[in-house]
Design goal:
The chain has two helices and 41 strands. A hairpin with a 4-residue loop joins strand 31 and strand 32. The chain has four domains: 201 residues, Jelly Rolls (Sandwich); 123 residues, Immunoglobulins (Immunoglobulin-like); 144 residues, Jelly Rolls; 79 residues, Immunoglobulin-like (Sandwich). By secondary structure, it is mainly beta. It is globular and about 75 Å long. Helix content is 3%, strand content 40%.
């Protein structure tokens, strides 16, 4: 334990009987990740798996999320994401903290530093006797958008000596607050390592945040890795990567929300859509690159042609970071009946190839279903009220209803998993009217709601209203606390809706002090109550004849198809627009026992461009 932590613990121990925590709005480090264990996305750097990999070894973590590429790495403990690194060199980082592969704090976590996550390479052929040109390079960063590691915590690199079967410590760095990404060069000249079967692994020493409030014992000490490269014929000056990468996707193209009910969006149409989208890219090389981006929107649930355009050609200079806006004019039109899904793709189209083509093109899915959302479905922090006097405290998030006659039927809350589920408390789901830009009268309250994480690991908890409510054009949803415990609601730091978030401790409402958005979503009744698979009026010539059954499904989805369809790509997307399963060749069956109950979109696309779009209901009851 660091000196600072020891002093803090001593102060708390001796002053606990006399200290009363002040009531406050609080933001804490994330204490769980939203991970679906069935995720299989992205392309691999190599295509044929062997027991021992050959050089070069290269991974920028842009193609497989949330787990490391199983071809390159032998464990699944690092969290692959594009949310926690701050200004990362390329799209995607590997985050080491104190979470297991299911996104939960290790049950052996403690306030004393302990070895937590690992990122371990597959065996490599490094049998190059007396070679002095083998180098491992990587970018590293402490904290990012997470928690700063303590000085007694550290990031560690070890090499495996095949003959002695031992892991040898070769490099480490103590914890520090946030800094830019650093490039590290490690020579490999020791004959113990220049062997077939060599491996390397990163790990971190971490310590649980000390707190006498159990729900505030959270995941701490984040480290982020990017662009790991191992090869021969290098030297200590070989720090230049011939690489241009998009560093972020276009994101939601809606003006205010990240998702809207499809019927509500039709009321506002193109007036609810942005006219610009961000383009972020970085050049890690010594040369300039020319590119001419293309921007494409595909209607995956209807029969419209979608939208596509070629943007102005441009150049990015050596070592430059380029951020600018592209423009478009498209109103998301589709003949889909009660929900719609669009695939948005930004492609750089470099005129000369760089080392890794995978990060030159990024896609995101725009979902229109039955809820409004400000967040992107991934929390970077935990939010709530805590301290003496927060019993009966209130949190409210403002929404605008574009179809006031429709019925609000449920509220979805995202609660992070706290250490040992300490935040599993009762609260009251609440709806308020608007009064001069703040929450007004309480128009609905439903008691007895519980943040029960048994419903699914780090998924939205749906509170179905006892009675459907017609809400006004401007309204607020949130919660009223029944205890002073910290509820640890998910908080999206990448989408700032600070002006719409309010809290009350006492009789008056106050604006939130934190940039970002608490993850709460209002759910409306669809005009059509369709269920099961629906081909959504696809053109006959574009429809693949794949039978998908049963529906609803509880155990396994089965696919029946002819030989010409066997090479089709299968993609499964959840209601948040995230790919949770993908295979380049459609399988005969897929297990769903780890999937959270709900509606999933199934997209099958052949190499000829023919496609089939369906919906599947997953139940586990």
């Amino acid at each position: 334990m660091s000196v600072t932590k020891r002093i803090l613990a001593v102060v708390w121990i001796f002053q606990l009987p006399f200290i009363t925590l002040p009531a406050q709005e609080r933001l804490i480090s994330i204490s769980s990740y939203r991970i679906n264990p069935s995720t299989e996305t992205g392309k691999r750097l190599k295509t044929n798996f062997t027991d021992t990999l050959e050089l070069p070894f290269m991974d920028d973590f842009s193609t497989t999320m949330p787990y490391p590429d199983s071809f390159l790495w032998s464990d699944r403990l690092a969290y692959i994401n594009n949310d926690f690194g701050y200004q990362s060199p390329t799209f995607g980082v590997a985050t080491l903290d104190m979470m297991d592969s299911d996104g939960m704090i290790y049950d052996f976590a403690e306030t004393e530093p302990f070895r937590a996550d690992y990122l371990t390479s597959r065996p490599l052929n490094l049998f190059y006797p007396q070679d002095t040109t083998v180098y491992l390079s990587f970018y590293w960063q402490p904290q990012g958008l997470g928690d700063a590691p303590e000085p007694d915590d550290s990031l560690i690199l070890e090499f495996y000596a095949p003959d002695s079967k031992q892991w040898i410590h070769v490099w480490s760095i103590p914890g520090t607050p946030l800094s830019d990404f650093h490039l590290q060069m490690i020579p490999i000249t020791d004959s113990r390592f220049l062997q077939k079967g060599f491996r390397f692994r990163f790990s971190n020493r971490a310590s649980l945040a000390p707190s006498f409030e159990p729900s505030l014992k959270v995941n701490a000490d984040h480290w982020h890795l990017d662009y790991i490269y191992l090869n021969r014929n290098r030297n200590y000056r070989d720090t230049i990567m011939n690489e241009v990468s998009l560093t972020d996707s276009p994101g939601s193209l809606l003006l205010t929300y990240t998702a809207m009910p499809w019927q509500h969006f039709r009321e506002v149409g193109i007036n609810g859509v942005k006219t610009i989208f961000p383009i972020h890219l970085r050049n890690l090389s010594v040369q300039r690159y020319f590119f001419q981006p293309t921007f494409q929107i595909e209607d995956l649930s209807g029969t419209t042609e979608g939208f596509g355009q070629r943007l102005d050609a441009d150049e990015i200079k050596a070592f430059e970071t380029l951020n600018y806006d592209g423009t478009f004019n498209y109103g998301f039109t589709s003949d889909a009946p009660d929900s719609a899904l669009f695939k948005i793709t930004l492609n750089l189209n470099l005129t000369e190839p760089d080392w890794l083509p995978y990060n030159d093109s990024l896609s995101v899915y725009q979902v229109f279903t039955n809820y409004y959302a400000y967040d992107d479905g991934t929390p970077e922090a935990g939010y709530g009220l805590t301290g003496e006097g927060t019993k009966n405290g209130r949190v409210a998030l403002r929404f605008q209803n574009y179809q006031p006659g429709d019925s609000l039927i449920a509220i979805r809350y995202f609660f992070n998993r706290s250490f040992e589920d300490a935040n599993r408390k009762y609260f009251i789901a609440a709806i308020w009217s608007d009064f001069e830009g703040q929450p007004g009268d309480l128009i609905y309250a439903q008691q007895g709601a519980v943040s029960d994480n048994k419903l699914g690991l780090n998924e939205f908890l749906t509170i179905k209203l006892d009675t459907a409510r017609k809400v006004p054009a401007v309204y607020y949803i949130g919660w009223i606390q029944t205890t002073s415990d910290f509820l640890n609601a998910g908080f999206d730091r990448n989408h700032n809706q600070k002006d719409k978030l309010f809290f009350s401790i006492g009789n008056t409402w106050q604006s939130s002090n934190f940039d970002g958005c608490v993850m709460i979503r209002p759910v409306f009744a669809n005009k059509s109550k369709k269920s099961g698979i629906n081909n959504l009026a696809l053109k006959p010539e574009d429809l693949l004849q794949v039978k998908i059954y049963p529906n609803p499904v509880r155990d396994k989805i089965h696919f029946r198809f002819d030989d010409k369809t066997a090479s089709a790509t299968l993609t499964v997307i959840n209601q948040q627009g995230s790919i949770i399963y993908q295979k380049e060749r459609i399988p005969r069956e897929v297990s769903v026992h780890t999937w959270t109950p709900g509606i999933y979109f199934i997209h099958i696309r052949s190499h000829t461009g023919a496609s089939q779009f369906s919906r599947m209901i997953v139940l586990h009851e």
